[in-house]
Amino acid sequence: MAGAPGASVAVPGRDVRAARVAVGALFFTNAVVFANVVPRLPYIKSSLGLSNAALGTAIAAGPLGALIAGAFASWFLVRWGSARVAVGSLVLMAANLLLISVAPSWGVLAAGLFLAGVCDSVADIANNAHGLRVQRRYGRSILNSFHGIWSVGAVFGGLVGSAAAGLDLALPLHLGVMAALSIVVVLATGRRLLPGPDDSEREPVHREAASSASRWWTQTSVIRALVVLGVVGSMGAAIEDAGATWGGVYLRDSLRSGAAVAGMAFVALQGMQALGRLTGDRWVTRFGERAVARAGAVVALAGMALALSLPSEATTVVGFGAAGLGISTWIPAAMHAADSIPGLPSGMALSIVGLVIRVGFFVEPPVVGVVADSTSLRWALLVVPFAAAVTLLAARALTTRVEPAPAGRPAPALAE
């Protein structure tokens, strides 16, 4: 993001560039871990003899764990810092794949997904907190690119999981190998994260406001802003989860697709989401977070309207792809706007918005499962256009324009 014409552009030092690579690796690995499970959900559902409602309830254990853990994420960041919390939670999340892979019953599966949600929630807040630290050191927007890398990781993990499903690989072998590789990547790259407190790169006035805001929760305007931003993110989460949890089930059970094709709804959603996020910084800078989010809501609504009104393998994959492109900037925009609110302790705004976002992950699976059992999964997937319509309204909380860094002002502490 350039400043005014003629303004000097700060060049990040080697340590900052290395930290950006490391944060990208954490986002990538975070996505890969659970994305490998998604294409195996139809197999898990079949092998355990679960109904749609039972599968949806088990999956909801993940968001439940995320909701509980999200309430403590800010405390973890204050005590140990985003770097240590990100690495530790991702290592535990990867190791938990082994429990999911050998689950012999609904209860054990739900327990494994609960722990996955706990680790994912904490890792998500820590990754974003550290990514925003690196963004402040760069002096320009790069957060969408981190989320784009997450989407690339989700596509990669989904493709690996789909291939494993198509080859009928044993679940413990498949997830065990991915767990080991993920732990190695996290430990190797985590050493390059930024040292020091998470508020090191903030403006002094922002740090002073945070240290003096002992009763921020009594400020109605702050709470309202955080909740609305959380709603924007949670609508994106609901649509993303619809593709992750139910896209494959819909293709396999309703459209009679094979195992490899069933995974393509998730891959299409994540692939187009990755494209939107990797190019998102440019579009958000030009048109503003609010306009881009609303345009995306229209794209998501139109895509899923096509998929549900003309059901086929092709329209379903296209529809979920359009939904992925549409939601691509919603969560990064909500996180950035929340982090910009002054007067909150380190990580608190991200934790609160993340908590509201997790409500979307928690509510969507069982609701869709129950509606699907009562009517059909095709009707239940109307949750996607509904979420898009909500975002058209809630996006007013986002910025109309992202301003470039002040002219002539370098990003802090960039010298090697």
Automatic annotation (TrEMBL):
Record-linked InterPro entries: MFS (IPR011701), MFS_dom (IPR020846), MFS_trans_sf (IPR036259), MFS_Transporter (IPR051788)
Keyword Transmembrane: yes
Topological type in the membrane: Multi-pass membrane protein
One CC-aspect GO term: plasma membrane
First-listed, main subcellular location of the protein, grouped into a coarse class: membrane
Top-level lineage group: Bacteria
Record keywords: Membrane, Transmembrane, Transmembrane helix
Occurrences of domain Major facilitator superfamily (MFS) profile (ranges): 17-403
Gene3D superfamilies: MFS general substrate transporter like domains
Subcellular location: Cell membrane
GO molecular function: transmembrane transporter activity
Transmembrane domains' residue ranges: 21-41, 53-78, 85-103, 109-127, 148-167, 173-194, 221-239, 259-279, 291-310, 316-335, 347-367, 379-399
Protein name: Fucose permease
Organism from which the protein derives: Motilibacter peucedani
